[in-house]
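[09:14] KT: can someone run the structure on this one? pasting the chain below
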Amino acid sequence: MTAFMNVLGKRLHSCVFREISYQINYQNKSKATNYRVASVTNHAANKHNSNNAKKEKKIHIKAETPEDVKCDWVGPPDFSSNIRPVKLHIPADESQLERNYRLKREEIVKWNHDFWTQNNANFLKEKEEFIKEKTSGQSDRDDKDPSKSLTPEEMSVFYREFLQKYYKKHLYYNMDWYKRNIQLLWPALQVAVYGVKKKMFHKKT
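[09:31] RB: done, structure tokens below
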């Protein structure tokens, strides 16, 4: 009975200790969160009230694809397509099987990049035309950023019309994307088997 009470007491002590630790950590996190919110609010107020505050400028850095890589290279999202560029590694002893597989992958990457480049260009162009049409003649029009003159509800009309207009195009893209990637399964399996055989052969020699 004494042993049982000792075990029970230890477990109760452990539970109470964890609960107290949780409450302390929760309070500390709450204070830290409140401090961060207050800091951000004060910073925003100071920035807004300052007459000499400089406007932030977005800097777009174009990634340069390396010429020689030792493994597959993935870069930052492209500015036009928002698709990350991929530079596939080309081994010195690349077989014809591996080359065919690599070329098919590069073809899909390029196809994907070209599609979203064109799609995003259409989106930005038609969005600008929509905003220009809706805000023309408005006395409270913001010339620096005309989109601010429209409410989210008004812009939702454009988003809905854009999706409806290109619905079939996006549907065919999805179907084609699955088709192209499924077709890569067999070449990928062949390359994987070839790689295993090549490693086993090198081990024997």
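[09:33] KT: thanks! The two ends are 70 Å apart (CA to CA).
[09:34] RB: yep, looked fine to me
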